[in-house]
Amino acid sequence: MRIVYHLGAHCTDEDRLIRCLLKNRAVLAEEGIAIPSPTRYRKLLRNTAVQLKGAPASAETQAMILEQILDAPSADRMVLSWESFMAFPAWAVRGAFYEFTGERIRAFTNVFPDTEPEFHLAIRNPATYLPALKAKIAERGQDPNLVEADPMSISWSDAIRQILHFNPGVPLTVWCDEDTPLIWPEVLQAVSGHATTTRLQDCDDVLALVLTETGLSRLKAYCVQHPPASVSHRRRVITAFLEKFARPQEIEVPVEMAGWTQDYVDELTARYHQDIARIRQMPRVRFIDP
Question: Model's pTM, two decimal places?
């Protein structure tokens, strides 16, 4: 069995991916793809990993955990999604992005050492990610000042390099959260592994966030009358509708951090783009481009 770990990151997906796959679990099951409910595995896997202290689980333990997670007796592929696989929000940025993520993820994969792991990760511009993470921590009643780092010195490539180092041989798919409206079908297909001919239902959550109701309705009608001939064609159509019907507050995310000027935000964004270029060149990394 291949186990797919959708790692987050925080403030990117907000469980939209796993909710969409759960809505399509019946058709995916026909292809041998299991989509268990997160309530079945998030706490269970964390507690098991803590008990194992990083050691590989025995065959008996693996069988017991799988029995609690899966409805079907067997599957070729299972998707597990949790934005806190890499760290809980309060520990996400302590001098670096997800400082101990490589070891933590290896501890999770060691719950199922006899399976093939596969990782998937969305990254986000630090200029908007850091304020969003602080807000998320504050919503939990914790101190947002737990986010400690020099924004100019942290990089996603360092976290990804660590994941690859502690999990040799495991493939990693990466995409930018900012690109999600344009690449959502490709992200869903990469994570679930369903056939390219399979059509998933109720996949409009991401577009509904960035398009007005009128825009989304007209986009659907247009695609029915003029089915996109290719991935690039579909992206051009979506881009055209975004230019006309986008929700401004979703496309232009305001950055509110004390002491940050527009020049500072622009420099952070430029460094983010440089970091993306580094990630694209990493071995074992597949980058989903818009």
Answer: 0.94
3-state secondary structure of 178: helix
DSSP track, 6-18: E---TTT-TTHHH
Please list the rounded mean pLDDT of every run of 10 residues in the chain (290 residues).
96 95 96 96 97 96 94 87 96 93 97 97 95 92 86 96 96 96 95 93 87 91 90 92 82 72 93 97 95
Strand 33-34 relative to strand 2-6: parallel, antiparallel, unpaired? unpaired
Domain residue spans of the chain: 2-197+260-287
Taking a C-beta distance cutoff of 8 angstroms, is the pair 67, 114 a contact? no
CATH topology of domain 2-197+260-287: Rossmann fold (3.40.50)
Q: Which two tokens mark 57?
A: 């689980």
**Cβ-Cβ contacts under 8 Å for 245 (sequence gap 6 or more):** 211, 212, 214, 215, 216, 218, 219
Give the helix/strand (H/E) hosting 286: strand 285-287
Q: Between the CA atoms of 278, 279, 280 and 283, what dihedral angle is there, to the nearest 10 degrees?
A: 110
Q: What is the pLDDT of residue 113?
A: 96
Q: Taking the C-alpha atoms of 279, 155, 191 and 214 in order, what is their torsion angle to the nearest 10 degrees?
A: -110
How far, CA to CA in Å, does 136 sit from each of 12, 14, 128, 281? 12, 11, 12, 31
What is the rounded distance in angstroms from the CA atom of residue 251 to the CA atom of residue 180? Answer: 12
| No. of helices (H) and no. of strands (E), the chain | 13, 6
